[in-house]
């Protein structure tokens, strides 16, 4: 922990509504950092939710999923310093996640695309290699024997898949790769929280189930009573954290798959086509170039990550 980092105090939380105060602090023994728990119990006596590989938060109403998301994040901020927990946030400009852009827990600035998830995939593989080399079953075992300078902090990637194009082909591919590594992710302290709605949740479920059959069902919010959040509650905790430590964006540049010679030629044709048409889609590329869905989706991913098209698949004028 940072030597001078102070977690939000009971006095700071005392001014919050009673129910909110209870939920933020009712995650068991605050000195016990593992496993990571979240206050998503449906009743005051309900035990905290233990975070495994992935948590999918959904509800019919946008405000309810946003409330659950805030509850999860603020609860974590009340219990973990930046050295005890690191965050990656993926969200568009209008996402409620943008309210957390000052957090010292962030590994990199909030990203509008999920490209940095490729780094998470590689980090999961790297961590598992470290654990296997040391004969450690989990991140807890590894850290117990590791020197302070090489201890591993848990990483939580929070993805806003609530917006219109929330579950695109790139995110589906990334979720499938991560889910195939779900045992590795759990062992090495890497977790995913996906914030979505009842319309998008089926796409998220399909991507996660493609990699494994062991991921738990989505956590639907309809039957869980949640407190009301105000901007002041969020800003109070975020501002406190921001005053305790500076941001230190330590993650490497996101790694992107390279284009083969054959795909490079096709990609160049796709760029020309996008510039001429103004807007493209996977289906349009399939028809235009007589290619399969997988290859067309791959081209869409490259067009997005290389800044050729925006989140609405519209061509960006250079």
List keywords for this structure.
318 residues; alpha/beta; Rossmann fold; five-stranded parallel β-sheet; two-stranded antiparallel sheet; 9% strand
State the CATH superfamily name of the largest domain. P-loop containing nucleotide triphosphate hydrolases
The total count of strands amounts to 7
Beta-strand residue percentage: 5-15%
Unreliable residue runs: 211-218
Please give the CATH architecture of the largest domain. Answer: 3-Layer(aba) Sandwich
**What profile does the largest beta sheet have?**
5 strands, parallel
Mean pLDDT: 80
Q: What is the fold named in CATH at topology level of the largest domain?
A: Rossmann fold
Listing every helix as H and every strand as E from the N terminus to the C terminus, the arrangement reads HHEEEHEHHEHHEHEHHHH
Sequence-ordered SSE layout with sheet pairings:
Elements: H1 10-13, H2 18-25, E1 37-38, E2 49-50, E3 54-58, H3 62-77, E4 86-90, H4 117-134, H5 139-145, E5 155-160, H6 169-180, H7 182-188, E6 190-195, H8 201-211, E7 219-220, H9 231-244, H10 261-277, H11 282-289, H12 293-305
Parallel strand pairs: 3-6, 3-7, 4-5, 5-6
Antiparallel strand pairs: 1-2
């Amino acid at each position: 922990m940072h030597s001078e980092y102070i977690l939000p105090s009971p006095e700071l939380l005392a001014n919050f509504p009673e129910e909110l105060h209870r939920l933020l602090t009712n995650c068991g023994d605050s000195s016990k950092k593992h496993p990571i728990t979240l206050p998503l119990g449906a009743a005051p006596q309900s035990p905290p939710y233990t975070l495994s590989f992935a948590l999918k938060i959904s509800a019919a109403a946008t405000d309810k999923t946003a409330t659950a998301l805030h509850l999860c994040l603020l609860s974590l901020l009340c219990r973990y310093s930046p050295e005890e927990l690191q965050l990656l946030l993926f969200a568009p400009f209008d996402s409620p996640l943008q309210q957390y852009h000052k957090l010292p827990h962030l590994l990199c600035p909030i990203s509008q695309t999920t490209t940095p998830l490729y780094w998470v995939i590689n980090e999961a593989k790297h961590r598992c290699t470290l654990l296997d080399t040391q004969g450690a079953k989990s991140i807890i075992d590894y850290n117990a024997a590791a020197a302070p300078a090489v201890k591993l902090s848990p990483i939580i990637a929070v993805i806003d898949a609530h917006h219109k194009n929330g579950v695109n082909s790139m995110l589906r591919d990334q979720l499938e790769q991560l889910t195939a590594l779900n045992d590795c992710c759990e062992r090495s302290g890497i977790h995913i929280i996906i914030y979505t709605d009842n319309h998008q949740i089926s796409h998220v479920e399909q991507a996660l189930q493609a990699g494994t059959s062991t991921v738990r069902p989505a956590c639907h919010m309809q039957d869980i009573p949640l407190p009301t959040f105000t901007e002041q509650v969020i800003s109070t905790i975020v501002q406190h954290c921001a005053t305790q430590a500076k941001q230190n964006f330590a993650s490497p540049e996101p790694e992107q798959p390279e284009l083969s010679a054959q795909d490079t030629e096709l990609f160049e044709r796709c760029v020309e086509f996008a510039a001429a048409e103004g807007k493209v889609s996977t289906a349009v590329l399939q028809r235009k170039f007589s290619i399969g869905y997988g290859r067309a989706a791959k081209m869409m991913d490259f067009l997005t990550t290389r800044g050729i098209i925006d989140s609405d698949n519209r061509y960006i004028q250079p």
